[in-house]
Amino acid sequence: MHFVFVQKDPIPNLATMCLSAVLKADGHTTHVLIDPAERDMLKALRRQQPDVLCLSATTGQHVWQLALARQVKARWSTTVVMGGPHPTFYPRVLEENDCLDYICVGEGEDCLVELARALRDGTDPSGIPNLGWRDDDGTPIYNPLRVLEQEPEQWPFPDRSVYDHYDFVRKRRTVSVMSARGCPYKCTFCFNVTMQEMYRGKGKYVRQKPVASMIEEIKEIQANYPWVRQIGFADDIFVLNYRKWGKEFLTRYAAEIGLPFSCLLRPDLVTKEVVQSLKEANCKLIKVGLESGVEELRVGVLKKGRLDNEGMRIAGRLIKEAGIKLYTFNIVGIPGETVDMAFQTADLNIAMGSDHAWASICQPYPGTTLESWSIENGYLGADGGDKDFQYSYFIDTPLKLDRKEELCNFQKLLPVLVTFPWLRPVVRQAIKLPPNVGFELIFKAHYAAGLVRTGQIDLRDMARLIPLTTNYWTNRGGTLDPGTM
Prior knowledge:
Elements: E1 2-7, H1 14-25, E2 29-34, H2 41-48, E3 52-56, H3 62-75, E4 79-83, H4 85-89, H5 93-96, E5 102-104, H6 109-121, E6 131-134, E7 140-142, H7 167-170, E8 174-177, E9 180-181, H8 191-198, E10 207-208, H9 211-224, E11 230-233, H10 242-256, E12 261-264, H11 272-280, E13 283-291, H12 295-301, H13 309-321, E14 325-332, H14 339-352, E15 356-361, H15 369-376, H16 404-419, H17 424-430, H18 437-453, H19 459-465, H20 470-474
Helix pairs in contact: 1-6, 9-10, 10-11, 14-16, 16-18
């Protein structure tokens, strides 16, 4: 069986690599097509002649993927499978779209392999856990979830070679890896809370790869791609278990790998000892979720830990004193947020010493606690906001907010304000203007420059990506997600 994965962004996807690896191990062939790198996606698909078209969908990106699936179904009899966060938290996507034959809910490795075997052998796939399918009458059926794989190292290493036909990916000098799956925290805007509930009683949700396995995986990357100069750990929270895993891993990484790296860390897990260990292992950048400078929004609405603003400032100071760059994630347009509150978020970024403040517009994604909370409190219609989601969290939000246009404008100017605090009075007046392309271009140019300035991507890689980022600059679907850089 030949499986073809399609995606909009020119950034390699770890989920695709993981799925490709297990499919190849089971005797199938795989290929990836990246939309902006292809002159004509339909012609590229025709050349590949996939038995199965695989869509890994996040909410927003699913719009483009469904449109492509409809075109494919109008031409060929290809089986179409959608997995990823969107069908996981909005399984009705199957009953609403005849172009989908199956959906995969939750973790997809074993589900996709079992489906591949059933399609290859002509057997009945209806009993496969995690699978959404249709009976003979066309009625959607959603199978229960399987028990979580407790030892993810049992799966083969992610298949990076599936992207090798694209030079701009194969020659990247920064690569992403993931040492653990799952997050134990309950931030209302994040999918992990819902996933924890979905998998309750089906095994430990947070699973860490053994130190030896993770070191071996990175060594394999170095052997196959000797030009790699930096590692990006894409774990939701890196060194979550510092005492039992992090200390040993960082010691071995420093001795056996030594490449500069970036990672994501919660502010309330930042201690002098942890930061020093990261520094000694050659960590160059730490990303933290600041989210809001208003404690009642950050802690009360988003449930982003219990750390007060003084604790956040201390965390930032510890990182900067160690000589590590700080990248902060922020959300503008949180339910109940005023324009003055949004400016407090900029102030906290400045106080923490953020080298780059990334900002998104608040999105109550389907299935998240924030979606249900927003409905209950009148910020979202009773049917949720799935129909109103745009391609990008840079554009708009389905939330009902006071002075919404000003907040959307501020989201685009917040990063610039953090870099140049003296622009505050200018920003105060500018956000009163109608939303415009100029603000979007300022935001995106500053964001792209920030990726280079903070070392997440070097100039060579950026030069290769620029010709493929038309969608990013024109709001037609590109995101350049910093969580995967």
